[in-house]
């Protein structure tokens, strides 16, 4: 549900958790990102950083400069000034990411899990079954046929939690139980309604079905795309997956290794929530795009 008014909760002695609701919802994330932008513009003394999530936002502050009650008052004032989400225009960049769907690396990972931990339906086939699709070819078409909205970053540096912007492409899946002990770096997966990219070889529980050769975090900041941050994405970015072959994957992997890869990013500047909602309302029913 969406709360009538945000809830302001203490998160230890240096954080405030602002909750807009209790569901994975683009509307709530738009509000969280709108508030984050308003906080930056307001330059509230003592606020260190913000971390928007699907339906909430964490505000990190210095308690010696501003107290919990005063900061809550300031945040409530900013929320009141935001108005409806339709009025929001959010900073947004669009990234194109090559991806091998139904790839050999995630398949080897799933096979290893089945052999060593627990039996399960192969991840792409499970996505087909749970989301009423004809086959894995349709799954690839649907999953790669939309832009994904970067709602938040965590649990590892740079890992994006993303939601499909085209409602016809939204799918859901349960997470592994128990989780995997390893996942290939660059694996693309889905848990709940969220798509994510694994930045490194990590444990994980998302259903995995594709892999990209493009790094999304870089401690050495070798590429210009990482100027100012070791993490590629920012909340409010958009990602489009472009299906490619294993041979294309390996060619890009070589470019990444020798430092010549060129990130494919379009800086559109502003994402209008009102225009997005108008486009969304114009869509027909059924799977797409």
Protein architecture, described:
With 289 residues, the protein is an alpha+beta fold. The chain has seven helices and twelve strands. The strands form two sheets. The chain has a seven-stranded mixed β-barrel. A hairpin with a 6-residue loop joins strand 6 (147-153) and strand 7 (160-164). The radius of gyration is 20 Å and the shape is globular. The mean pLDDT is 92.
What would the keywords be for this entry?
single chain; 289 residues; alpha+beta
The total strand number stands at 12
Q: For the terminal residues, how far apart are their CA atoms?
A: 28 Å
Q: Assign a percent range to the helix content.
A: 25-40%
Q: What is the mean pLDDT?
A: 92
Gyration radius (Cα, Å) is 20 Å
Question: In order across it, which strands form the biggest sheet?
Answer: 5-10-8-9-7-6-11
- Major sheet, described briefly? 7 strands, mixed, barrel
**In sequence order, what are the helices and strands, one letter per element?**
EEHEEHEHHHEEEEEEHEH
Unreliable residue stretches: none
Proportion of beta-strand residues: 25-35%
Counted by DSSP, the helix tally is 7
**What structural class do you assign from the helix and strand content?**
alpha+beta
Shape, per Cα inertia axes: globular
